[in-house]
Amino acid sequence: MEKILLPVENPDNYRLDKYLSENIDDVSRTFAATLCEKGNVLLDGKPLSKKYIPKDSEIIEINLPEPEILDALPEDIPLDIFFEDDDLIVVNKPQGMVVHPANGNRTGTLVNALLYHFGDNLSQINGVIRPGIVHRIDKDTAGLLVVAKNNDAHLKLSHQLKERKANRRYIALVNGKVTEGGTVNKPIARHPKDRKKMAIVKGGREAITHYSVLENYNGYTLLECVLETGRTHQIRVHMASIGHSLVGDRTYGLQKEKIKTDGQLLFAKTIGFVHPKTNEYMEFSAELPSYFEEVLTKLRRGVNID
């Protein structure tokens, strides 16, 4: 069995099977219900019914059966480490790298690289497939992530994210002209027909993105987006919902893009948090990757980017 400890965050009165399906990768609502029926989902050692309503701050234990386990093996993949101490690591993930193994992406992930460089010195809150992973960014989104080296650090960092005390700032290039900043406050949940996508759904989980204008170009706008919440694909879904999809976003963006990219132009530039042991505020910022800067340079010069 692979054991996952899932801290409950903003359960929104969801049933347990629905909550699990929306918070654990590759677990459908049907599979979550089956896990409950087999006694594989527990609270304080007691099995839970699929109809149980999780409560905020509870820690649910999920035991995934052996056939579902994907091997996460160490791989000698270079990492851009911004900071490291006995409790945590701040790493700058490149575009194109998946955070942890899953069906279709069993190797070449950030977890494979972390296992090579840090071995067993990673938290186990999220099980053997996601050691150390406190939060994620999409495969084609580059930028800064904080990784926990022990369970105490993991829980404290997760709590900051849940309580909206962490500082997460992104740079995004969007289609169209945005004249002023604002806030998108629209609930997000799994797309009702396509589980690979997220969508604005009435009754979904609260999702809030603040944005401000950094630069305007001919037909494009550079934004800084600040996450108040951290839902899957949040910035991508929110910006598309107001008519300004991210450049290069093949899931939520334009069918035909003039700017050719390997994925959405979204970069997790800044991450700030209170250190779980010293209680001191720490903040890290990374420079935009070269592929992103090259596009901006052409836009600033008015160069034809078709």
Counting DSSP E segments of at least 2 residues, the number of strands comes to: 15
Low-confidence stretches: none
Report how far apart the termini are: 51 Å
What proportion of the residues is helical, as a percent range? Answer: 10-25%
By secondary-structure content and strand pairing, the structural class works out as alpha+beta
- Major sheet details: 9 strands, mixed
| Helix and strand sequence | EHHEEEEEHEHEEEEEEHEEH
Report the C-alpha radius of gyration, rounded: 20 Å
- Look at the structure and give the mean pLDDT: 92
Number of helices: 6
Globular, elongated, flat, extended or rod-shaped: what is the shape? globular
Question: What keyword list fits this structure?
Answer:
306 residues, alpha+beta, 9-stranded mixed sheet, 27% strand
